[in-house]
Amino acid sequence: MRRHGFRLALLLITLAPGMANTATDPKTYHAVLLGANVASAPADTAASAQVTALLHDRTLSVHGSFQGLSSPLRDMTDSPDNPGILLQEGGHGEAGTPLYGLAAETGPESESGIFHGRFRLSLTEAQQLRDGELHLKIVSRDFPDGELRGQLIPLESDTQGRVLRGQGEQLSAD
Asked: Which stretches in the chain have pLDDT values below 50?
């Protein structure tokens, strides 16, 4: 019995540092949303959006801005808490399934603005985020399948605090 207790304690001590870092340390993600990244059919648009997301435990806080949409958001008038800015599951090149809608505040013509949301992710959704399997999509009236899309990828920094770019989708309109 003492031998099993010692082995269990040794195992927990060995695993504890890695477990602490994966579950509770805040992790920052970002995305650049472009029409070229829309999975169902790339959108020919000059619009773009930028997103920053912070995951702490399983709470995801998302903030972003968009500009230059070809038309107003899908449903800003009837559904301001879910006007067509969606957090979806799905990897690179996948159309995905909507998980959450984000609230938006727009300018007078609703073609530029800011958006935000805070969500308690399930264990599966949190793992999907860590695995690069969540993205954001912005739906406008002219593009009902999505005008902009961008994969959430980790925002990494080096030991000097300089931001390193993550791997992912097209990051510019080139």
From this structure: 1-2, 4-22, 158-174
**Roughly how many angstroms between the first and final C-alpha of the chain, as a whole number?**
65
47, 68 contact by CB (below 8 A): yes
Which tokens in the block code for residue 125? 């959704």
Token reading at 111: 């073609």
Residues 54, 116: Cα–Cα separation, whole Å: 12
Residue 109, pLDDT score: 80
* Residue-number span of the structural domain to which 76 is assigned: 24-163
Check residue 62 and give its pLDDT. 98
φ, ψ of residue 63 to 5 degrees: the values are -140, 140
**141 falls within a domain:** yes
Q: What is the count of structural domains for the chain?
A: 1
Question: Can you give the pTM of this predicted structure?
Answer: 0.76
User: Is 174 within the bounds of a domain?
Assistant: no
What backbone torsions phi and psi does residue 163 show, to the nearest 5 degrees? -75, 130
Q: Has residue 8 been placed in a domain? A: no
Question: What's 59's domain CATH number?
Answer: 2.60.40
Task: Report DSSP state, residue 37.
Answer: G
